[in-house]
Each structure stands twice: as structure tokens, then as C-alpha cells.
Amino acid sequence: MVDIDTLREKFLKDITLAGDLDQLNAVRIDALGKKGAISFELAKLGQMDADARKQAGQIINAVKQELTSALAERQELLAKQALDKKLESEKSDVSLPTRPSIQAKMHPLSRTMEEISAIFADMGFVIAEGPEIETDENNFTALNIPPEHPARQEHDTFYLKADASGSRPVLRTHTSPVQIRTMRSTKPPIRIIVPGRTYRSDHDATHSPMFHQCEGLVIGPDIHMGHLKATLIDFCRSFFGMDELPVRFRPSYFPFTEPSAEVDIGCSREGGGLKIGAGESWLEILGSGMVNPRVLENCGYDSTTTQGFAFGMGVERLAMLKYGIPDLRTFYESDLRWLHHYGFMPHDVAGLHTGIV
Amino acid sequence: MKFTLNWLKDHLETECSLSEICDGLVRLGHEVEEVVDPAQSLSDFRIVEIKEAQPHPEADRLQLCVVDDNGSILQIVCGAPNARAGLKTVLAPIGTYVPAIDIIIKKGLIRGQESNGMLCAFSELGLDGDSDGIIELPDDAPLGTSYIEYADLNDPVIEIAITPNRGDCLGVRGIARDLSAASIGRMKPLDTSECKGEFDSPIHWALSPDTVEIVPRVTGRYFQDVANKSSPEWMARRLISIGQRPISALVDITNYIMMDLGRPLHAFDADKISGDTLFIRRANAGEKILALNEKEYECTPDMLVIGDRDGADDIAGIMGGERTGITDDTQNLFLEIAIFDPISVAATGRTLNINSDARYRFERGLDGESPDLLSGYIARFVQSICGGKISREVSVGAGVTWQRCVYFNPELTQQLTGIELAHPQQRQILNELGFIIEPGEDKTWNVTPPAWRNDIDGQADLVEEIIRVAGYDKLPMVPLPRLSVIAQPAYSQEQLRPIHLRRMLAAAGLNEAVTFSFMAQSDAALFGGGDDALTLVNPISSELDCMRPSILPNLLNALSRNMNRGIKNVRLFEIGPVFHGTDEASQTLSCAGVLNGDYQIGDWQDKARCVDVFDAKKIMEKICETLGVSSQSIQLNTPGPAWFHPGQSANMMLGKTAIGSFGMIHPEILAAFDIKVPVAAFDCNINAIPLPRHKNVARPLLKLSTFQPVERDFAFVLDEEVSAAKLLRAVRAAAKDKISDIGIFDVYEGAEIGDGKKSIAVKIQLTPDEATFTEAELQQISADIIASVEKQCAGKLRG
Description:
Chain A has helices at 4-17, 21-32, 37-44, 50-89, 108-122, 136-139, 150-153, 177-185, 225-240, 293-298, 315-323, 336-342; strands spanning 126-127, 133-134, 170-171, 190-199, 210-219, 247-254, 257-268, 275-276, 281-291, 308-314. By secondary structure, chain A is an alpha+beta fold.
């Protein structure tokens, strides 16, 4: 019979010498496997008498336990070494560039119109819309611009061919026809803004044949020019994010409002660049006024009991001023370099709670 | 409208400074566009004398001048041929800014010779005058004096914008009247007394009966033996200041009076009038007039003209004719002062496309009393400059009925503007502006506007007059009252759709473009548009002459432009209107996009993958999802519209409604846009997709299966024509409630399965809801699926 101590020492040594998990497993099988040396010794116990079995059994089981824990200990060590080796072999140069992703932007006009909408939404306005091919009636006549009115010449209107009835559709020259459409289909109170495309046959550095306007209309009992003033001052200051932005109202003329006012904001041109805010200069930004009684009557309202105000602004102009975009024509060129530079990220939502500046 | 400060002061007694006057103009509604004060911009230019002029040793055309600058001697290199010893001229000393050429004069070396300033020509000072050489001044011009002071040019020029309603301010006197009402000075009187005249005019008017309506009043006078020399210097200088070139005294007088009093005149050379009568009549069809601008105009019978027995030679209110016009030799003058119907003048001017200063004033409305009121003043003015004898006045027309009464309740001022203004103050403002107020019923007023205020139409106009003079800075600030307790959304559900789509598409890697709503008719025709009804009568170019039937042509052009700039992968979308007719319903909202190049960009790890039809389809599906339409409810009709590849495109159908299309652009279309790479595109008609029915805010209760889902794979051999969509429908139909997910993981065509056949491999996920599937149940489901595919698609399970 092999001396159990000899076996013990042999296997403990083998365990220590096992260089990897495979070798260690071979030792486990040699020692504790079904046909292993220790298992063999245990199997022999059955042939012994009770006393000898008890004594030998204790010894062999102690050795088995010792070997088992030695195997486990060695196993853990070797497993860790193996993992370390594997990880070492999997090393990447993480300075390599990542997979290309595509980042796209929204047009600055979309953003600007959302900003405008957010500010007016807070004042209880809703968005109204209308078609861009308009009737002469809605675009001009109902707005108190009769056919030979000098103001009509200044509109540089695009015309479509006359239809069978002889009337000549126009591309709307402003968003104001939506005032007419809204008043003819709705009873007061009205509080709308109308962002949208408009058209004039003019094309140079500061004019585009298509551009965007945002109209506003408020009709309600006792709505007067003081409301107009507060509304537009609040708008200008919110839009440019300046509490103290100087805003000036001066008399002007629009056929569809009376009295009329143009609205200027303060700016400075010192050093050649234009800067919005308090300064020595003024910048025209809005047209506005009390809705002309003739327009109210044209829409079926009683102008002696109904009143309100209207305003209109150029969206491109606002965007150019706010975001420092120098050239109007670039808005419509779809140059990806421009869109990336002046565009907005899709998650960048314009809202009063998220900020619009 | 341009005028000078001294000109204004002819009509306005004022102590106010230039900037106070400009502020006043703005407050009154006359936007100041520019103020040029030569006293500031040209103050440094001074009078010097050339003492010696020698040829430059190194340059033939230059001279070395020794210049006496009020005692100090300077050497200046000068290229003017007229630089000579003894000449008094104008120096821009070192450090002077020369506005006309936008430079600051520096000490310099010119061909090796020091030069200490610049001797100036008129043009370099931005002045009119002979600019072939430097300015030549008389010998007595005082050395060292500022040139503009010496030449009396320091009169600031003010340019203001006059709104279309204020025809009365298209003359300096009208502006003075407005300023006076706002207490910025007092109006000076104008001598409008009658001028009787010494003899009867040898020329008479004959007013055609059919023009009575549009010719309310015309007066005329004959001036005998006038001297049509050069204008006096003061008048010439004022005309130059406002950008008009002096021509001769008579011509200049008509221009001057127009600018001074806002009163257009027309001057005939009386000796060129054939016969003794000027006929005011409608033009004959095809009648031609060679106008003073040397262009010939063909008139139509609705146009008002004036002429003699030889024919018309004046387009009334717009422009006179060459044949009877004033020349330097004119000795006898016949001067017309008229009121014509503004609408008639505007219509004629528009038809003939003549923009003249006279038309501008006639169509904005003139002072109805001016032909008679100003006749004497103007006659004396002409005589004071050109001498001669003045005839008695000849006139026709019943006169202008400008008098009208506007009922006004002064309470309206506060009602409309929120400004509290005492009634006497309102009354005073209106009076200052020339309005006459009579008491009306019950504390209201009957207001008669003055003859020059054709624009006053109703009460609101009077309110504007009152607050304009009182000052818009008096407007109170009153926030709008809230309409509801809680904040309401500004966008309707429908209006939110483009906003959501825009974010989704930008997040998916497409850049948002905004392109014109019009395009070349030829491009429109390629995309199912180009109808004559949608072409513009007056486009700005043939490239932009037709309303777009689709956004895609604009995006293809944009894609092409970007590629020409070296950008390889272009992804663009636009949300905007497209037009199928001129009525409101024919304008729809489209969301379209184009993609080219690599959809997945290659790098050191992965291969690039070029865009294909499925990228376009994917975007269409995402659009549908964003708008609340599940892709399961969509059917495809192939092929898509003609501008797509016939084998790689489809129309997307929601029931019987086409909601859009996608595909690869047809190679012939690409060629038309000069694009040499494949382009995928999509085009969705947002309006065709119904809004989701209003749902409860609260979601239905979520029921989650607690049982393990199982997956099964099937491969079916099918005829090539059978679409994948049909196969999936057949699979789904067999076990509708149990299939929780379905996908295709392989498509194979090849010899192994034979010609005209294909194999499609489907993976389904089955999720039980009540108990784990038994093997028997799974076998039954599989059998049902196989049977369904066999029945509906004639497909066989691949062995």
C-alpha cells in the first residue's frame, strides 16, 4: 500500500506545479477522479475492519479535504492568471477613431419660428395658417388696398394666370390675408399669430422672392394700442433675451391699420459691427397698428363695437439679427456647410421653460 | 424725399438744432433715412495756393507742387494737368478722410518724392462740377479758409421716407407744416395773393367732355419774353444737394416748385404749340408720344393726354413730350398747374411703366386747391427768375370737392390707444394741422380735414393725427388679459406634425433645407407639374417660374450643388407646401427628402454601404410612425411614380389613399439634374394622413405575459413574384394572437432552388399569455403557418 502521506505530498506538489487549468484538472483527476489515487484509497476502506476503517478513513478524508481546498485555491489563482492573460491579449488602441456617425441640423428659420411661437403662446396666442396662392381680395382689397393704391405698387406682387372667371390669383405678398380669413370665419376674441411663406418679385442682396413673415392679430373687447405696445415690447425683449432692450414706437402707415406704428429696437453700430441692445442707433423690426375700421367692416365686424391690433415681422430678419447671419440669400441655398454652421440640433427645443436664447 | 436744413428754414421759423428736427420728424412718422452734414464730413478741406509747379523727375504725368497752406509751405505730388503756379485750389491735408474715395490721406512718397496731402477735384469731395482736374478757385479766395464754408455748402441734407398716405409731405412746405404742429418751430407765411396778369393768354384749354370726371381743375398761364438762362446759384445748389442736375432756369423752376411745395407743374414751350388750344382728352388708340425721357410711348384710349391740333404731347400728370418741351431757346412759356384723378394717373403710369416724380405726387393726391391758390405765387416766382410778362390765368374744370366732414368722438382717442388726452389738447393738435372743428351732437365734433389731407378717411385717422403729434411715447404699457386659467397649446394637433417630423428627421441624420416654392417649369413637368395655371405671369427668372408640384426637384438641385462643392454624402429634407392647383385645397404639405452616397460611412472597422431603396422606405416608415400610423396598416403599390426607378420604388397606401412614395430616382431624371450617382428619395403628403383619433390621456392597462417566449424559424420557397409583404401577411394570419414579433433573416435566389424561385427565411417569436406552449401546440402553430403560406402564397417549406 502506498503511503497516504506520500500521496498527499505528491499531489500537493503536483497542484503547486500545475501551470494552467488543464494541468490542474489532470491533477484533480489523478487524485480525486473516479479512478484517482485518493478515490482508490477510499475504496479500499470497505475491505477493512471497523476500527482500521475508522482510523484510515479519517486520515484519507482529511487528505482529500486538504487536496480539495488546495485545488480550489490553485484553480482560483490560475483562473485569474488566465483571465489576465486573455485581457492582456485583447488590448485595443482606444485612441483609434470611433465609427462615423451622422449629425444633422434643423434650419435656423424653423428654430426662429418656434421661438416666436413659444413667446406668443405664453401670451395666449394660437397659430393660424392660410394658403400661399391667394385671391386679390384677401391679399389686397379686403385689407383696404384698392387696385390703384400706391401701397399696392410697393408690394411687387407675383401673379398667376387669370382663371376662367377672369380673376388673377396672387402669391400672397404678406401673411396678412390670414387676418381676413380668420375674421371672416371666427367671432372675437381672436388672438393668433401666422408664421408662413410670403412672396415678392424682388431679388437682390437684401430681398428674396420668397421669405417668411409672422403676422399677429388680436381682436377683443377694449383691446387698445397700449396692449399692442406691451405685447410687442415683451416679445422683442423675450426674443433677444434682454430685459432692458430699448424699444421705440413711431408713427407709420399701413393701409390695414390705423393708427399705425413701426417698432424699432436699440442697437449700436460702433466699430462697424451691429450689436442689439442699448446704443446710439435704432433698427426697424416690426410693423403694427390698430386694425383699420374698414378692414373690420370688410370682414363683417361692426367697427364701432369691435377693435384690436395687428402686427407683422420678417422672420429672416429676426434670425439674421439674433444669430448673426449676414446674408439673406444663403437661407435658401441648402448649402450643407451653412446648415451645419447656422442650424440647430434636433434636441434643442425652443420653449420658455427650456430657454429661447 | 430729400431737402436741406436751410431749405426747410425757408418755411419754418425754428431755433431747434438739426438733431432736434430729425427726432421730431421721426416722432411725427417721417423716418429719417440719412443726414449728410458736409460741415462735418468736409470740414477739413481748405483753400491753398500753388506757388510753384515743376515736372516730377521720375514721372511724366506728375508734377511737384510747392503749396502755400496759409503760411506753411508743403511739397505735394499732383497728377492734375491744370496744377500750375498761382492757382488757388483745395487741399486735403494729412489725416483727412476723403469720403468719395474712402481713404485717409497719409504722408507718402510718390516715385521717390515726398507728398504732404492731396490737391482735390470736385469729385473727390463728392460734389458736382468739372472734375477733369483739381478745383480752380478765384484769386480772391481766402487762404486757410474751409472750402465748404467759402463755397457756402455747409447745408445739411436730410432724407426722409414719406409713407404713401402723406402726399402732402412730398414738398418741403408740407414737412414744415407737420413740424410746426408738433411745436418744432412756426410756419412762415407764403404769399398766395392773386396775380392778375397783364394780358390774355394766347393759349386756351379745351376739356373733352368725357374727361370731366378725371380732370377736376387745370389752370394755365402764358409768360412772354422769358429768359431761359442758367438757374440762380442758390437754386442750382439746392437741386444739386438733393441729387437733381440743374438744366435751365425754366426746367429747374418746375422741379424746384415740385420739391418746395409738392406741386408738380408742366411747362410747354408756347411757340411750339400748334394753334391756340391745348386739348385735354383721352388718347387715341395707338397714339404715340415721344416723352422728355427720350422714350416713345404708345397710349391706349383710357389714358389722359394733353396736346395741340398736331397731336398729344403730354401724358397728363406723368411726363411731358419732347416736341413741345422747354429748350434753352424757349422765349415764351405756357405753364400748367393741374389736378388729375390719382387713380387714372396711377393706372396710366403703371401701364406705361413710367416712374416720374410728378406721377409719384399725382397718384398720392395733391392739395385740391393748389392750382388756384398757388397760381399767383408760382407766376411771380417764374418772373422773379426769368423776367418776362405774365398773362391772365386760363382755367377749366369745376374744381376739386375736397371738403368733407368726419364725425369724431374725442373719447375714441383713449378707447383706441389708451392715451388720456384732454379734449382741448386734441382740438388744438387738429387745428394746428389745419383741420376745422365744428361742434357736433352730444360732445362730438364734426371735423373738416384740410384740402391737402386726402388721406383722412375716418375717426381712426384723426386719432392717429392726435397721438402722432402728442407722441407715441405716451402710449401706456398694458399686458393682454389672460384668456384662460391654464396655458393652452399654441399649435393644433395638425400643426404639431411638421414640428415632430422635423425633429425626427434631423435626429435620423437628414439636414433641413428651406427652398423656394417655385422652380423651373421644365423641372416641375418632370415631377407631374408644370401646369400653365401654376406658372407665374411675372417670374423673376425662368428658373423660378412655376409653383412646385413636389419638393424633390429643388432638393435634387441642392444635392447637385453640394456635390459640386465636394460633399459626398448629402442628406436633405424639407417640409413645405406643394401646389397642384390654385385653390386652397390644392396646396398640400409635403415632407420630402433625398439621400446619396454612403448610408453607412466606411472606416477602419466597417465597410461603407451605399444608400438604397430600403433607406428611403425606412424613413417613410418612420414618418408614418411619427404621425401615428403603424407600418402594418400600410400597403405598397409598385412601381412608384415615374420619376423613380421602376423596379426600386413604391407608392405607400393607407387603404385607398396614397400617402407618399419612395424609391431610387430614375436615371433619366438624375441625368436631367446632372447627377451621376444613385439617389434615394421619399415624398410624403402629410395632409393625406388622417389625424389619430383623440385618445384618452391615460394609457390602457399594460398586460405583460409572465411566460417565456419561444422562437421558430421557417424557410419558404416561393415564386419570384410573390412579395415578402404577402408572405409575412400569410404567416401572421395563421397565428395572429400569438405572434409577438416577426422578421425576415434571409433572402436567397440561386441554382439550388431553381429558376424563377426564391427562398425567404422567417423568424417568428411566439408569446403565450396564459400558459407555456406545449410541444403539441407549437407543432399545431407551425402546421398552421405552413398551410397558410402554401394556400396564400403557393410557398413550400424548404427541405
